[in-house]
Amino acid sequence: MKSITTVLPVPSIEVELPLWRDRLGFDVTTVVNHEDAMGFVILQRGGVEVMLQSYASLDDDLGAVGGDAVRGLAMLFIKVNDLNAIRSRLGDGDVVMEERTTFYGSREIAVRSPSGHLVVLAEFAEET
């Protein structure tokens, strides 16, 4: 494991930004739009990173796993060195998003924890 970043599902990123950016001093380092609004942002301050993703964007990304299933739950985004090794260790783990390659350069899968939280495991080729 290399790092872990919390992904907070939110109704609206635009409503959240005054707290994160203006009050807490985070910089917006990445913005991905979804339809006519922000769908996803990465916020950083020092060595701390948090991601916000809109419900609408999550619904599109996760399909049936999205919707009410992710409202109020935390999601973890974990960068890993070897996705294949982790995948083999999951066995019958509750994989809710099969492996995909993203436009931002990672191979990733998602599993559901026993408590219902989503854990995305991502390998970036340039970082292995």
Structural descriptors:
3 helices, eight-stranded mixed sheet, 21% helix, single chain, alpha+beta, 128 residues, globular
What does the secondary structure layout of this molecule look like, with pairings?
Blueprint: E1 3-10, H1 13-23, E2 27-34, E3 37-45, E4 48-54, H2 55-62, E5 75-79, H3 83-90, E6 95-101, E7 106-112, E8 118-124
Parallel strand pairs: 1-4, 5-8
Antiparallel strand pairs: 1-5, 2-3, 3-4, 6-7, 7-8
Q: Can you walk me through this structure?
A:
This protein is an alpha+beta fold and 128 residues long. 21% of the residues lie in helices and 45% in strands. The protein contains three helices and eight strands; from the N terminus they run E-H-E-E-E-H-E-H-E-E-E. The chain has an eight-stranded mixed β-sheet. The longest helix is centred in the first third of the chain and has 11 residues, at 13-23. It is globular. It starts with a strand and ends with a strand. The mean pLDDT is 87.
Q: SSE order, as H and E?
A: EHEEEHEHEEE
Beta strands, count: 8
Dominant shape = globular
Amino- and carboxy-terminal Cα gap: 11 Å
- Strand portion, in percent? over 45%
Which structural class is indicated by helix and strand composition? alpha+beta
Low-pLDDT stretches:
none
What does the largest sheet look like?
A: 8 strands, mixed
What portion of residues is helical? Answer: 10-25%
Mean pLDDT: 87
